[in-house]
TrEMBL record:
PANTHER family: A/G-SPECIFIC ADENINE GLYCOSYLASE/ENDONUCLEASE III, ENDONUCLEASE III. DNA repair enzyme that has both DNA N-glycosylase activity and AP-lyase activity. The DNA N-glycosylase activity releases various damaged pyrimidines from DNA by cleaving the N-glycosidic bond, leaving an AP (apurinic/apyrimidinic) site. The AP-lyase activity cleaves the phosphodiester bond 3' to the AP site by a beta-elimination, leaving a 3'-terminal unsaturated sugar and a product with a terminal 5'-phosphate. Residues 318-330 have a biased composition (Pro residues). Residues 14-31, 46-56 have a biased composition (Basic residues). The gene is nth. It comes from Streptomyces tubercidicus. This is Endonuclease III. [4Fe-4S] cluster binds at residues 264, 271, 274, 280. It is an enzyme of class 4 (lyase). Belongs to the Nth/MutY family. Pfam families: HHH, HhH-GPD. One of its GO terms (molecular function) is metal ion binding. CDD domains: ENDO3c. Keywords: 4Fe-4S, DNA damage, DNA repair, DNA-binding, Glycosidase, Hydrolase, Iron, Iron-sulfur, Lyase, Metal-binding. Residues 115-262 form the HhH-GPD domain.
Length: 330
């Protein structure tokens, strides 16, 4: 009988122990659950953070430079780095960039460049074969009757003023430079009709002297790229010269002009098909729809003939056609 009351006590103890153990297990389980949940939440947060970081890293490279520039003004160092990257990308895009005037010697290049004012290189290239066949040297050209020369160059427009320049520069080459084109800027700019732009074209492409050629395309793109704010060709030249090493000047000029003629047009730039859009603060000035933009591409990028009748061997496009013969009157 004595044992009877003892039994429930032991049992009670055992039950209490069991209950405590259960509580401990439950606590452990809850703790484990909480830890797991916490861990999962932490892992999720880390993953989210990594993805965000990754996205943040990727986004600026893909996003148009305009948005980044709008957030933060660009430092001079960053602008120079971006400019040099644009040059490298353009070099990859146009490894065959070259002057788009046909010539075989410095005199032909000088004459062709003077003729290229206010007209296309194509029109000049279609005009010069006959011109150079008739007057291949400065002496021959200087001896031409003005009316005859006017007729020969008429297709290039402004033919009276251009005739005066050609006669003047041919006579100057004959009388002051022994019939040779001088290889110095200070001499070239003394020739009638020859300014810095023409002189730089001749120096860079016929004499291997580095030069920046600021024509309408180069000036427009230099402003769109944020390399300059000036509309003045000489100031643009000086601003760009401070960004790039001299050894790059001539090829940089060709690449930028190539891009201006093919993609970054004056009125409707093909932003949606532009390889350097992520580096360009003016992205969005033109067509951004890729499909529509692709239709705006010109010359070899648009599947059309180029400007030179005799392009260099590595040019991937088709040569330009010769001048169409005049239609006979019926
Ligand atoms: S086409 Fe558009 S994105 Fe490309 S260089 Fe010109 S303005 Fe910039």
């Amino acid at each position: 009988m004595n044992a009877t009351p003892e039994k429930p006590a032991v049992a009670k103890k055992a039950v209490t122990k069991k209950a405590t153990a259960k509580k401990a297990v439950t606590k452990k389980a809850v703790a484990k659950k909480t830890t797991t949940a916490k861990q999962a939440a932490a892992t999720k947060t880390t993953a989210k953070k990594t993805a965000t970081k990754k996205a943040a890293k990727t986004a600026p490279a893909k996003a148009p430079a305009k948005k980044a520039a709008a957030r933060k003004p660009e430092s001079r160092v960053a602008m120079v780095r971006r400019a040099r990257r644009i040059n490298r990308e353009l070099a990859e895009l146009y490894p065959y960039a070259h002057p788009e005037l046909d010539f075989t010697n410095p005199f032909e290049l000088l004459v062709a460049t003077v003729l290229s004012a206010q007209t296309t290189d194509l029109r000049v290239n279609q005009t010069t074969p006959h011109l150079f066949a008739v007057c291949p040297t400065p002496e021959d050209m200087a001896a031409m009757p003005p009316e005859k020369l006017e007729e020969l160059i008429r297709p290039t427009g402004f033919f009276r003023a251009k005739t005066r320049s050609l006669l003047g520069l041919s006579a100057a080459l004959r009388d002051r430079f022994g019939g040779e084109v001088p290889g110095r800027l200070e001499d070239l700019v003394t020739l009638p009709g020859v300014g810095r732009k023409t002189a730089n074209v001749v120096l860079g492409n016929a004499f291997g002297v580095p030069g920046i050629t600021v024509d309408t395309h180069f000036g427009r793109l230099a402003r769109r790229f944020g390399w300059t704010t000036s509309e003045d060709a000489e100031k643009v030249e000086a601003d760009v010269a401070e960004i790039f090493p001299k050894s790059e000047w001539t090829m940089l000029s060709h690449r930028v002009v190539f891009h201006g003629r093919r993609v970054c047009h004056s009125r409707k730039p093909a932003c949606g098909a532009c390889a350097i859009a992520p580096l360009c603060p003016s992205y969005g000035e033109g067509e951004t729809d890729p499909e529509k933009a692709r239709k705006l591409l010109k010359y070899e990028l648009g599947g059309q003939p180029g400007q030179r009748l005799k392009p260099p061997a590595d040019y991937p496009g088709q040569p330009a056609p010769p001048m169409a013969p005049p239609v006979a009157a019926s």
